[in-house]
């Protein structure tokens, strides 16, 4: 069977993934038509599945590209009536070419004191050193301006996450690597942010640090106030935190497994990072890294983060 001379049926789908072309490596065995038939059916099923995934991916992409945009008619979105989406000939892909990077959102979630801002800054610094443009949306900082009207009640937290999700999406559209670090305690709110972006343009990073460790760090003294009842509805104390079930990246401090609460300098310097390969639904690799060699993970394979060697600002 020869695939040469035929154009791919769908753009972006390689010949090898099209139905009807199989290669058999075991050519020396005597021909067993029954076994060969089973082989063919199996291969066809696998190819069909792959093709389906490719087509779904393309449909997703188009759906995401046009989500909420009605190009010819006036629309009503929420309370905004009679609005119309305006296209510009300079698109995301053009800006990405200019910046030589892929616009995406890295969403860091975890308890207060789990190290979200620290990781965000380290990542941003390393990207800067590599010549990549990033921007951090830190929950604490955004609440100083855009979200200053929001409290820590569940509905206000949801609105906080929605707004930051929308802003992050704009940054990604601008071609930035947008690093959002917020407690974002509810799965539903985070899932909504994920759904705003095409598949793989949203990388969820879970700071898997136990409450006890965060509470021992307590850099702002907030846990102490919460335990004393002076702050009500503090995440982890008297307000919920729903850990992600399928984050692409999981980060934890070594202290979680060493059983120490006050960590030594060496432990402070070490974090573990797991890349969660969602396509295989299993942990792909576990890496032990010094804090200085944090992550270099952009536009690589199944998820957008890579764990590189990079020097830390002393
Ligand atoms: N009740 C309560 N619960 C949790 N956190 C509180 C609360 N009150 C104030 N803070 C401070 O607000 C920071 C978290 O803001 P976020 O916007 O990330 O929170 S959320 O995503 O809306 O849940 C958080 O910052 P981080 O410690 O950086 O997470 C706290 O400094
Ligand atoms: N891997 C780590 N080991 C030990 N301490 C850490 C680590 N990462 C961050 N910290 C410290 O924990 C505290 C909280 O970190 P921060 O990044 O502000 O957390 P968050 O943004 O989640 O509230 C800070 O004092 C920071 O220096």
UniProtKB/TrEMBL annotation:
<comment type="function">
    <text>Catalyzes the synthesis of activated sulfate.</text>
</comment>
<keyword id="KW-0067">ATP-binding</keyword>
<keyword id="KW-0808">Transferase</keyword>
<dbReference type="GO" id="GO:0000103">
    <property type="term" value="P:sulfate assimilation"/>
</dbReference>
<comment type="similarity">
    <text>Belongs to the APS kinase family.</text>
</comment>
<feature type="domain" description="APS kinase">
    <location>
        <begin position="102"/>
        <end position="251"/>
    </location>
</feature>
<keyword id="KW-0547">Nucleotide-binding</keyword>
<dbReference type="InterPro" id="IPR027417">
    <property type="entry name" value="P-loop_NTPase"/>
</dbReference>
<dbReference type="Pfam" id="PF01583">
    <property type="entry name" value="APS_kinase"/>
</dbReference>
<keyword id="KW-0418">Kinase</keyword>
<dbReference type="GO" id="GO:0005524">
    <property type="term" value="F:ATP binding"/>
</dbReference>
<dbReference type="InterPro" id="IPR059117">
    <property type="entry name" value="APS_kinase_dom"/>
</dbReference>
<dbReference type="GO" id="GO:0004020">
    <property type="term" value="F:adenylylsulfate kinase activity"/>
</dbReference>
<dbReference type="InterPro" id="IPR002891">
    <property type="entry name" value="APS"/>
</dbReference>
<protein>
    <recommendedName>
        <fullName>Adenylyl-sulfate kinase</fullName>
        <ecNumber>2.7.1.25</ecNumber>
    </recommendedName>
</protein>
<comment type="pathway">
    <text>Sulfur metabolism; hydrogen sulfide biosynthesis; sulfite from sulfate: step 2/3.</text>
</comment>
């Amino acid at each position: 069977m020869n695939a040469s001379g035929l154009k791919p049926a769908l753009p972006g789908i390689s010949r090898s993934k099209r139905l009807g072309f199989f290669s058999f490596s075991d050519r020396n065995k005597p021909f067993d038509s029954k076994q060969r038939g089973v082989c063919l059916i199996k291969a066809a099923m696998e190819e069909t599945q792959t093709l389906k995934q490719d087509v779904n991916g393309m449909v997703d992409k188009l759906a995401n590209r046009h989500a909420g945009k009605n190009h010819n008619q006036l629309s009503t979105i929420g309370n905004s009536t009679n609005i119309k989406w305006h296209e510009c000939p300079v698109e995301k892909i053009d800006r990405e070419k200019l910046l030589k990077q892929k616009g995406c959102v890295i969403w860091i979630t975890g308890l207060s004191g789990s190290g979200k801002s620290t990781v965000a800054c380290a990542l941003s610094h390393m990207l800067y050193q590599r010549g990549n443009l990033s921007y951090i949306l830190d929950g604490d900082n955004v609440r100083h301006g855009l979200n200053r009207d929001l409290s820590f009640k569940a509905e206000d937290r949801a609105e906080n996450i929605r707004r930051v999700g929308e802003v992050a999406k704009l940054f990604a559209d601008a071609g930035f690597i947008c690093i959002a670090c917020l407690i974002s305690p509810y799965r539903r709110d985070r899932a909504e942010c994920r759904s705003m972006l095409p598949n793989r343009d949203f990388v969820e990073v879970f700071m898997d640090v136990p409450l006890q460790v965060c509470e021992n760090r307590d850099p702002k003294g907030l846990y102490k106030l919460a335990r004393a009842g002076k702050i009500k509805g503090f995440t982890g104390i008297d307000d919920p935190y729903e850990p992600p079930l399928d984050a692409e990246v999981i980060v934890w401090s070594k202290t979680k497994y060493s059983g120490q609460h006050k960590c030594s300098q060496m432990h402070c310097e070490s974090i573990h990072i797991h890349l969660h390969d969602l396509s295989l639904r299993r942990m792909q690799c576990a890496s032990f890294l010094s804090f200085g060699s944090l992550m270099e993970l952009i536009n690589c394979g199944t998820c957008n983060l890579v764990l590189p060697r990079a020097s830390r600002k002393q």
